[in-house]
Design goal:
Strands 1, 2, 3, 4, 5, 6, 7, 8 and 9 form a 9-stranded mixed sheet that branches. A 5-stranded mixed sheet has the order 10-11-14-12-13, with helices on both faces. A 4-stranded antiparallel sheet has the order 19-20-21-25. The chain is 30% helix and 21% strand. It contains 19 helices and 25 strands. About 21% of the residues have low confidence. The chain binds adenosine-5'-diphosphate and magnesium ion. The site of adenosine-5'-diphosphate has 23 residues, from helix 2 and helix 4.
Length: 658
């Protein structure tokens, strides 16, 4: 065994630095937190090569006195804490006195600072933690810190750095959070010479949200305000109908500090229970304010987690604030869908249909007016399924008081002629009152969503798929209930309930998994601009090749927006952004390449599946039933059963016949 020795100070510093400075974003976080603690009202952050080349943070805060400058870079040197007692009531973002020491230990640092009211400033250069001499210098009021060549003396850490684009994205995401945490400070973020974020610093959270997270997200929000016990909750949450594909847009602050907290996530989501679609998540920018003694921030070196003294109280405050606001907003009741929308709007399911009838449908559709009349919203009266006289044997969803019966609309969607630049009414403005937009100059030109036009629609006939006839007599389809479950009867007298979405999802999953060829694509007449947030966008762009293989042609559109020009033929273009959002989530959470691929396949299979709530054509139902009967489709890709069997005996028992 080697002898036990105390590490020399330099090695100990490098180890300690590793805890605080993990990547460029952690440097930016610490430096910007210092500017906030210094009382700055304007902060400029500039990075080059994801922060690996240079990080410059400038503020107009209180500055550092020249004689204290070297002390600021010593470990455990801080102006924010004096004694043990102070640890229990931390009101500043920093308190550990470690950041400047840690950063300077693994980089080359220059600092220039002047305290307001003094004539002369000072500068200092440090390299690998070793400080030069403090020099007098003219300087603007406040502090500028430049960090160069991060990790130049720790090659092991350097090896673990991801691509510059990923580091840039991490810093961008962080800057968003910092800007949102302090709407009273104007933040400017410049990456590789281009301005990427600029908040007005007018003290209004909605202006900061607009500038940092984009117009579309800002418009999906409603304000919330409430309190419970000692906790005050303010901010914005998404309207339930505008839930998101992942939790990436859940932003929480506690006493002005961005934190990750399962407790707050759970409280928020509990507020949305039964109000948001399954698989969708609320987004938010929520700020919780507590007395400094009611929260412990000293639980994580990067200070991204906190411990609440009274967890239940905080949970209840957030939960009730969200719930009350959603109740008041009247948002929970889903808006009535236009009658036409209950019909499966997908044009690609008919793999069992023969080419002739496919072509007939295509021709029939083409002869219709190019712009179909916009479906009227269904009256509030409850809809009931009815048999339609024009198409005997086919189920249609018809409102009792509808002036005319809606004939079954072919699942083949007519090609819509679209006027470019004018979004369809249904997507132009989400219902409800929109969050106040920020300054006009930040407005991007409108990016209308335009429905996809399948490429060469009449030529790309789906291949006919032969389905093995089941050995036993095919199950009789008795009907469909709740627009979700197919009711069948088997020859041996059992009743089967099939979840049509789950069954179709499984079919898609198996097909995609086995596919050798890339999927058929549709070119969008006008590309969809998906505003995903900077981190998600960078993650997806890093995996652009994988997306290509799945049939998505994507480009970077800047500012966390991805421009999608092509999507797989079996994905509805309106689902593009949601699909990409889910992709990002799967890429983030997948622990191995195989798990990530599987995750992407799940998303594709789900998005391409017919949905519960759509009225399906009997031909669609037949395909699904045969697949389930043959035993090919048993569980959905998430492991849930696709079919439930009720034997005759079980039924008779229920009715006390036996
Ligand atoms: P902490 O923030 O935990 O106190 P740091 O190592 O981040 O520790 O900073 C050490 C000290 O340097 C701070 O306590 C503060 O007094 C001073 N300081 C750092 N950055 C700034 C700044 N931008 N403006 C004014 N003072 C600063
Ligand atoms: Mg600090």
């Amino acid at each position: 065994m080697p002898h036990i020795q105390q590490l020399d100070a330099h090695v100990a510093d490098l180890i300690a630095a590793g805890e605080v400075v993990e990547r460029p974003a952690s440097v930016v976080k610490e430096l910007v937190e210092n500017t906030i603690d210094a009382g700055a009202s304007a902060v400029v952050v500039e990075i080059q090569r994801g922060g690996m080349g240079l990080i410059r943070v400038t503020d107009n805060g209180c500055g550092i006195a020249p004689e204290e400058l070297p002390t600021a870079f010593l470990r455990h040197a801080t102006s924010k804490l004096r004694c043990e007692e102070d640890l229990g009531k931390i009101g500043t973002l920093g308190f550990r006195g470690e950041a400047l020491a840690a950063i300077s230990a693994v980089s080359r640092v220059d600092i220039l600072t002047r305290r307001p009211g003094t004539d002369l400033g000072a500068r200092l250069h440090l390299e690998g933690g070793v400080a030069g001499a403090v020099e007098e210098a003219g300087a603007p009021e406040g502090t500028t810190i430049i960090v160069r060549d991060l990790f130049y003396n720790t090659p092991a850490r350097l090896k673990f750095m991801r691509k510059d684009s990923a580091e840039t994205a991490a810093v961008s995401g962080l800057m968003q959070h910092l800007a949102l945490s302090h709407p009273d400070i104007s933040f400017k973020f410049i990456k590789d010479g281009a301005e990427a974020l600029h908040t007005p610093g007018d003290g209004k959270l909605d202006s900061a949200i607009y500038a940092a997270l984009g117009r579309e997200f800002a418009r999906s929000l409603v304000p919330v305000e409430g309190r419970g016990g000692e906790a005050a909750v303010t901010g914005f949450v998404t309207k339930p109908l505008l839930g998101r594909g992942s939790r990436s847009m859940q932003v929480f602050f506690v006493n002005g500090r961005f934190i990750k907290s399962q407790l707050l996530t759970a409280a928020l989501e509990e507020g949305y229970r039964n109000q948001i679609m399954k698989g969708k998540f609320p987004g938010c920018v929520l700020s919780v304010t507590l007395p400094v003694t009611a929260v412990d921030v000293n639980v994580h070196p990067a200070k991204t987690q906190v411990k609440f003294a009274r967890e239940r109280e905080v949970f209840d405050a957030v939960y009730h604030t969200v719930l009350d606001c959603l109740d008041r907003d009247g948002a929970p009741a889903p808006a009535p869908k236009p009658a036409g929308e209950t019909v499966n709007p997908r044009q690609d399911f008919f793999q069992s249909m023969d080419a002739r009838s496919f072509r007939q449908r295509a021709e029939a559709t083409a002869s219709k007016p190019a712009v179909p009349p916009r479906p009227q919203p269904r009256p509030a009266a409850p809809a009931r399924p009815a048999f339609d006289s024009e198409a005997p044997g086919r189920m249609a969803r018809v409102a009792d008081s509808a002036p005319e019966k809606q004939p079954y609309r072919a699942a083949f969607r007519p090609v819509e002629k679209v006027s470019i630049g004018k979004p369809p009414a249904s997507v132009a403005e989400p219902p409800g009152k929109a969050a106040a937009p920020g300054p006009e100059k930040a407005e991007k030109p409108p990016r209308p969503f335009v429905p996809a036009i399948p490429r060469q629609q009449t030529l790309d006939l789906p291949e006919q798929q032969t389905i093995e006839p089941p050995k036993e007599a095919p199950w009789r389809i008795a009907g469909e209930v709740l627009h979700t479950y197919i009711v069948c009867e088997s020859e041996d007298g059992c009743v089967w309930l099939i979840d049509k979405h789950a069954a179709h999802e499984r079919m898609n999953f198996d097909r995609l998994k086995a596919a050798q060829e890339p999927p058929m694509r549709q070119t969008l007449l006008q590309p969809v601009a998906a505003e995903l947030g900077r981190e998600d966008a960078a993650l997806l762009l890093e995996n652009r090749e994988a997306l290509e293989r799945f049939g998505f042609a994507c480009e970077d559109f800047g500012d966390g927006t991805i421009l999608v020009r092509e999507v797989p033929a079996d994905i509805d273009a309106a689902d593009t952004a949601a699909t990409l959002e889910e992709f990002a989530e799967k890429l983030r959470t997948g622990r191995s390449p195989a798990e990530k691929r599987e995750g992407l396949l799940h998303t594709m299979a789900c998005k391409a599946a017919i949905k519960g709530g759509w009225t399906s054509d009997p031909a669609e139902l037949r395909v699904l039933v045969d697949k389930v009967q043959s035993g090919e489709v048993k569980y959905c890709p998430h492991g849930r059963p696709v079919a439930v069997k009720l034997t005759k005996y079980e039924l008779e028992k229920m009715f006390k016949r036996v």
